[in-house]
Amino acid sequence: MFSKILIANRGEIACRIAKTAKRLGISVVAVYSEADAGSRHVSMADEAYCIGPPPAKDSYLRGDAIIEVAKKSGAQAIHPGYGFLSENDAFAEACAKAGLVFIGPPPSAIRAMGLKSAAKALMEKAGVPLVPGYHGDKQDPAFLRTEADKIGYPVLIKASAGGGGKGMRVVEKGGDFVEALASCQREAKASFGDDQVLIEKYLTRPRHIEIQVFADTRGQCVYLFERDCSVQRRHQKVLEEAPAPGMQPDRRKAMGAAAVAAAQAVGYVGAGTVEFIANQDGSFYFMEMNTRLQVEHPVTEMITGLDLVHWQLQVAAGLPLPLTQDQVKINGHSIEARVYAENPAKNFLPSTGLLKHVRTPEAVEFEGAMVQPPASVRVDSGVRPGDTISPYYDPMIAKLIVWGEDRGVALARLARALGEFEVVGVSTNIAFLGRVVKSRAFSSGDLDTGLIERNRDELFAPASGPRDDVLALAAFAEFTLSGWTATQRGKTTDEPNSPWHLVDGWRLNEQPHHTIVFVEDDQSTAVTLVRAASGMRMRTGSADYALSGKMSPDGALRIELDGRSVGGRAVRVGSEWSIFLGGEQHRLALKDDLHELESDAHGGTLAAPMPGKIIAVLVAKGARVEKGTPLVILEAMKMEHTITAPRAGTVASIRFAPGEQVDEGVDLLTLED
Ligand code: MV4
Predict the structure, then answer these.
(1) Which end of the chain has fewer CB within 10 Å, C or N?
(2) Is residue 534 located within the same domain as residue 492?
(3) Quick one: which atom of ligand 1 is closest to the CA of 285?
(4) CB-CB neighbours of 403 under 10 Å
């Protein structure tokens, strides 16, 4: 076995690989771009080397620089993760030339599967089922039209060099064929520099089912069952699960055997995935083989109890596969949801920015090969609160993986865990994922690749104004926090008995009511809390409720609203409350002059209002700031507090870095006029 490996990747996959390496006592060498200097994968490594500027082509794709680091650091092997150099045969070859083990398949196998139409020809010879169609070199339109007629409509024209859904045309009838062919060839030429196409029978409601295979250097090859990745949006996987709902044992065996035959046909070694497209009747056809460990490998780990990275390391070290086909068994069901920084309402536009608050569901920490029963919730992430989602790389925040005794239990756990996943600072797909998971279409297990599109109306719920439950949670949270702040201030001034910091939460003792204005989606709503003899009341519009409750310092809320109990969570970042209720996040900004008055009360320096930890410094030395500009995020009492500029000025000095602990009252930075 190796004693030191280099991980040629970043983010969650680099962290995932490092975890197994550390468990096995293997030293980890990380590489990073200038954008990732402070990132989680660097902090997990034993040594780390900067390999260039942020764009991947100048850093994570620089095979030469990475090999140089491996040699310099004494690493014996390179794990490429997924993406970047993982399916680059020239890089695999260069590793070998440099005397380094590439933890992946032989370059020849990567090459054989990389050329899509050549791969199909190889598969046909190996007896792997292909979609009925024409995959040959003859490209004359009249000839292709006859082939299409023979296959029977609808047919699909695909660019041979394509992938990810680009360069595909569905043709419904013979009369449309020639025109569709010309348009597909134009797109193929423009996108891939190659206008060769293939023609296939078009499957109308296909499922994406892939088989995990593993081969060693001694000629053994096993399959670790299937994953169903049908739930996609624009060719991007959203939810993946294992086993596939409704998979019959004989079909599983047939698909497994076909996948092993595919791997053996190209002399495969290591972890690989054979993708099939399956019809609703269960028939299945080879699509392509991914010659790497995949993003969704954890669901396979959860149902088999195996650590696939450990297997990769053993195979790469020349050891035999740890188990035979008969020894691998399916236990329960696992589903993975990909949590992205993106905005589903804006066509899934990536959302970049600072992760001001992240709270992941309670996870049973993954420790490689799992003991029975498996962890029921696993979170694989490459970021921490205070990190930034940058525009340079994939905006994935985390993979949330659950396990259950059966699909129903796994689904329920996933829905609950998504409801516990909180992110403030960027838009996310968390609520969208929750809606998919709870939809009838998904929970029925009747999956196909069109599920999201078909259920658009249900899954992309229109934004609605804040409901009274949400307003009550936010108002109660603001009321409670202002009480705590008043208490804190009372302890720190020389006038501890001033009525301005009474502990009962009423900041303005003289006033029997207090109005808070919340702004959500440009819509203002005023909420008035009234102190009555019978207790507190909340008025909003024409409604009037009795309101009481409790908030714990970590933001957990339980309120009574007219005799109804409502539980939720509240997180305040800057002057905005995020209310998490029923799997949805509501962002309510405070339109409250009082906060500006409070800021004015502070002097020219910015003191920590309470002891805590610096989560993020939002400005650089020398920056010009306006009054109210967020400067520093401080975590205290498990809540996040944004320190804003009390007045306009220039940042003269910054005294603390993220991660540092500060005492109450110390100056965090200084402002000059
Ligand atoms: C197909 C198909 C239907 N019939 N081939 C899309 C990406 C590429 N890897 C293969 N794709 C498809 N090929 C035939 N003959 C439907 C798709 C397809 C798809 C496949 C897998 C997962 C998601 C998909 C979404 C749309 C279309």
Answers:
(1) C
(2) yes
(3) 15
(4) 28
Instruction: Specify the pLDDT at position 646.
Output: 82
Residue 120 in domain: no
CA atoms within 13 A on the CB side of 14: 26
Alpha helices in 493-604 (DSSP H): 593-601
Which of 596, 618, 646 delimits the end of a domain? 596
Element (H, E) at 366: none
CA dist list (Å): 541 to 524, 544, 590: 11, 8, 17
pLDDT on residue 32: 98
Q: List the structure tokens of 545.
A: 């409720």
10 Å Cβ neighbour count for 47?
17
Atom of ligand 1 at shortest range from CA of 131: 15
The pLDDT of residue 639? 67
Q: What is the pLDDT of residue 375?
A: 76
Residue 633 sits in a domain whose CATH number is: 2.40.50.100
The CATH number of the domain where 301 resides is what? 3.30.470.20
The single residue listed with the structure tokens 């709870």 is: 438
**What is the dihedral sign for C-alpha 487, 491, 492, 494?**
positive
As for how many domains the chain has, the answer is 5
- 143 and 55 in one domain? no
Based on the fold, state whether residues 589 and 613 are members of the same structural domain. Answer: no
User: Which structure tokens are listed for 297?
Assistant: 């490998």
Question: Using CA positions, which residue lies closest to atom 15 of ligand 1?
Answer: 202
Does 307 reside within a domain? yes
Residue positions annotated with a catalytic role: 292
* CA neighbor of 70 nearest in space, from 39, 29, 37, 109: 29
Which residues form the pocket of ligand 1, taking CB atoms under 6 Å from any ligand atom? Answer: 131, 156, 163, 165, 200-203, 206, 208, 232, 235, 277, 287, 449
Burial 493-530 (b: 16+ CB within 10 A, else e): eeeeeeeebbeebbbeeeeeebebebbbeeeebebebb
**Statement to judge: residues 341 and 480 lie in one domain:** no
Q: What is the CATH number of the domain that holds 489?
A: 3.30.700.40
Nearest CA to ligand 1 atom 21: 208
CATH number, domain containing residue 47: 3.40.50.20
How much distance in Å is there from the Cα of 158 to the middle of ligand 1? 10
Among 166, 184, 234, 235, say which to mutate for ligand 1: greatest number of ligand atoms within 8 Å of CB. 235
Q: Whole domain around residue 538: which residue ranges?
A: 468-596
Pair 581, 468: CB distance under 8 Å: no
Q: Quick one: pLDDT at residue 138? A: 94
**Ligand 1 atom index nearest CA of 229:** 22
Q: State the greatest distance between any 2 C-alpha atoms of the chain, in Å, as a whole number.
A: 93
Measure 165 CA to ligand 1 centroid, in angstroms: 7
Ranges of residues in the chain with a pLDDT under 70 are: 164, 363-374, 462-466, 489-512, 592-605, 637-639
- On whether residue 52 sits in a domain, the answer given is yes
Q: How far apart are CA 668 and CA 555, in angstroms?
A: 24
Question: How far apart, in whole angstroms, are the C-alpha atoms of residue 419 and residue 177?
Answer: 48
* Domain co-membership, 583 together with 612: no
Domain-located, residue 122: no
Do 518 and 540 lie in one domain? The reply is yes
Domain termination site, one of 459, 484, 513: 459
Please tell me the predicted confidence (pLDDT) of residue 174: 96
Distance 131 CA to ligand 1 centre (A): 11
Backbone angles phi, psi at 93, to 5 degrees: -65, -45
Same domain, yes or no: 167 and 223? no
Cβ(312)–Cβ(21) below 8 Å: no
Q: Whose CA is nearest to atom 12 of ligand 1?
A: 165
Which 8-state DSSP code applies to residue 463? P
User: What count of residues does the chain have?
Assistant: 673
